[in-house]
Every structure is written in structure tokens, then in C-alpha cells.
Amino acid sequence: MSTSNRPYHHRLKDVAARENLDKLPAGLSADFAEVELICLDVDGILTDNSITYSENGRALATFNARDGLGIYLLRKSGIAVAFISALESPIVRVRAEELGIDHVHLGISRKLECVNDLGSRLSGKILFMGDDLWDLEAMRACDIAASVCDATIEALAAADIISPYKGGRGAVRQISDITLEAKGVNRQRLVTDYD
């Protein structure tokens, strides 16, 4: 993992079309091409950070289908994906199982230790996508730190790249598309092979 001082603090508005990878700084584009692991916070990244309760007191969450397809495409292309959340949530386990996520770490407040453990088995770069105080340590230590436009001020400051999408609204898909584009992966072919 990098100990850089965040040379690329870049907002993705110019890259919103996803394929406009040439609008990223050259070094950041090269870093995306070397990503082997994407670690995702859950609340505020995969969801809109809302928690709704059913009549019987069960927590409910809404996940974005485009984000889900982006995660599928990452996994299909050989990029490991991890869910790392400070909260323990059965609904997150269900979503992770639906997406075939092998690395699900819930109830983890010290996320950097978890990322270091996962990253110790890889030679490529690690991207961490977070939005709040729990995520800062991992964001600052990883090779690429990504966030959403509605993240906390601290998370925005720690991010190399900020999506114009809010949490749970397609930001993960955007990061997925940029990563796969940087690696030269044909996303359409992956979709036609959907199993």
C-alpha cells in the first residue's frame, strides 16, 4: 500500500461518462490499472446511509442494482471485492451472498487492520471506498482512496477521487467501470457471459 500524500485529489464530474478515462490524471489512471482489491464500506457507499425499520424492528436497507452489476463485473474480471463495515448487519450478509462476495467483514471499527490482512496476500494496488470517520485510516493508507459526493468533510479530504454520485446511487458502479476501463477489460463481454 502507498504512503503517498494524495497526489491526485480529483473529482469525477469530468469522468461521469465513465469511459472518459483520459480525463483522469495519468498517474491515477495507471494506479487504477493495477488494482487487485476493492474494499467497500457499506453504509453510505453501497447504501444511501439510511436505516429503515420494519414493523417488527428489523433493519432494512436499499442497495443499487447498478452497483451490484459493477461488483459482479469486478469479480468476473478477477478483482477481489471486500465489504468492510463498522456495523453488524444480517441484510448486508444477504447482499454479499447474492453478489458472491468472499470477503465480508462486519462489526469492524478498525478497518485498516482488516485491509492490511486482505492486502498481504496480493501484489497489486488496493482501493478503499469510504464516506465517514470509521474509514479515514484505511483511506489514507490505501493506494487509491475513493468517496462519494455526500461523504463527510474528512472523508472528502482523504479521497483521491470523489464520485459525483451519492452513496447507494451508482458511485460504486462508476469506480468499477473506471477500474475495468483502466485495465482494458471489455465490460460488455463480461455481461454477455453473465451466469
How is this structure best summarized?
Keywords: Hydrolase, Magnesium, Metal-binding. This protein is α/β, with parallel strands linked by helices.
What integer value in Å does the Rg equal?
15 Å
Q: Which sequence of SSEs, written as H and E, runs from N to C?
A: EHEEEHEHEHEHEHEHH
- Overall average pLDDT: 87
Low-confidence stretches: 13-19
Discrete helix count: 8
Helix content: 25-40%
List strands and helices in order, with pairings.
Blueprint: E1 10-11, H1 26-33, E2 35-40, E3 52-53, E4 59-60, H2 65-76, E5 80-85, H3 90-99, E6 103-106, H4 111-119, E7 125-129, H5 136-141, E8 144-148, H6 153-158, E9 161-163, H7 171-182, H8 187-192
Describe the structure.
The protein contains 8 helices and 9 strands. The protein is α/β, with parallel strands linked by helices. The protein has one domain: Rossmann fold, CATH 3.40.50.1000. The protein has a 7-stranded parallel sheet, sandwiched between helices. Strands 3-4 form a two-stranded antiparallel sheet. Strand 7 (125-129), helix 5 (136-141) and strand 8 form a beta-alpha-beta unit. The longest helix has 12 residues, at 65-76.
List keywords for this structure.
single chain, alpha/beta, Rossmann fold, globular
